Amino acid sequence: MSGSNKGGQPVDVDITKVTPQQLVQLSKSIEQEIEVLTQSYSQLVSATNKFHDSKLVLNYVKEKAGGKEMMVPLTSSLYVPGRMDDNSKIMVEAGAGYFIEENIEKARQYCERKSKQLQDNATKVGEIIQVKKIQLGKIETEYKKRLESL
User: Fold this and answer.
1) Global pTM?
2) For 6-50, how does the pLDDT look when each residue is reduced to its tens digit (9 = 90+)?
3) Under the phi-then-psi rule, with left for phi > 0, alpha for psi from -120 to 50, and beta for the rest, what region is 95?
4) Nearest 5°: phi and psi at 131?
């Protein structure tokens, strides 16, 4: 079993040799870690879905949006009517408020790359969550065993 020291580094803990109070503290600590990891996992899945949706929009833009009226976002909640005259190029947000003009295919590749990267990270976080849940189960079992022996 592993916990963490004040520096955040993992420390192996033999749960059979700690006090019941320490088991409770370790249990609470792992529950908090699981909660934070679960939130991170949800955010990664949400971001992955957004990139997937962006790829679908890119397909639509390439095939059908040229010369058509559309709503153009000025902010996250303010849209104005506009017309897309050239549907071969699109602005891609590269992060930190920077945008790059790309052709549709490069924009799609960017979305696929980011989506795969986020999915890989979500998978890793999901695996860590499972390990933490197993650790929590072992701690709870040890705690119950201790209570029964009193």
Assistant:
1) 0.77
2) 544 456 778 888 888 999 999 999 999 999 999 999 999 999 999
3) left
4) -60, -45
User: Where do the H-state alpha helices sit in 2-150?
Assistant: 20-64, 104-148
Under the banding of pLDDT at 50, 70 and 90, the label for residue 108 is very high
Q: How far, in Å, CA of 132 to CA of 126, rounded?
A: 10
CB 81 within 8 A of CB 71: yes
Spatial distance between the Cα atoms of 52 and 119, rounded to a whole number of angstroms? 11
Q: In this structure, are residues 92 and 107 in contact, taking their beta carbons and an 8 Å threshold?
A: yes
Q: Which CATH class is domain 19-65+90-145?
A: mainly alpha
Cα distance between residue 107 and residue 103, in whole Å: 6
Q: How far is residue 115's CA from residue 52's CA, in Å, rounded to a whole number?
A: 7
Look at residue 15 and give its three-state secondary structure.
helix
148 φ/ψ sector (left φ>0, alpha ψ -120 to 50, else beta)? alpha
**Nearest by Cα to 118 from 59, 52, 36, 56:** 52
DSSP code per residue over 79-106:
EEEEE-S-TTEEEEEEETTEEEEEEHHH
Domain spans of the chain, in order of start: 19-65+90-145
